[in-house]
Amino acid sequence: MKRIAEDVFDEPVRADRLSAYLASSGHMMIVALADGVVGQCAAVIHRHLDKVSELYIDEVGVSPAYQRHGIARKMLDAMFALGREQGCGEAWVGTEPDNVPARAL
């Protein structure tokens, strides 16, 4: 946990929370590495009784020092591929209206 770049996550990562997240069915995470974690993309699969499963992108974060290098796009593309492998036919990504970098992505 000591080699996570600044602003990749909203709050400090706790080992117990990370373990619980990854142990939960349908939770997935992709990280970008460059001398530690410099980016992360977390997602959850929503399974339904009456329609195709959906991939919900929970979080995307890239350290400011590594932004504008295509890292977020590569992580999202990889997460979309994982979602397709898990049978997801749709994906959802949300952000705040004033988050200009996320909206551009």
Explain what this protein looks like in three dimensions.
The chain is built from three helices and four strands, in the order αβββαβα. It has helices spanning 15-23, 71-85, 100-104, and strands spanning 27-33, 37-46, 53-62, 88-93. Strand 1 (27-33) and strand 2 (37-46) form a beta hairpin. The two termini are 27 Å apart. The relative contact order is 0.19.
What are the salient characteristics of this protein?
105 residues; 4-stranded mixed beta sheet; globular
Runs in which pLDDT lies below 50 for 5 or more consecutive residues are: none
Number of helices, counting only DSSP H or I runs of 4 residues or more: 3
Largest sheet: 4 strands, mixed
Strand order of the largest sheet: 1-2-3-4
The SSE order reads HEEEHEH
- From the helix content, strand content and strand pairing, which structural class follows? alpha+beta
Mean pLDDT: 91
Strand proportion, as a percent range, falls in 25-35%
Choose one word for the global shape.
Answer: globular
How many DSSP-defined strands? 4
* Cα-based radius of gyration, to the nearest Å: 14 Å
Instruction: Work out the helicity level.
Output: 25-40%
- The N- to C-terminal Cα distance equals 27 Å
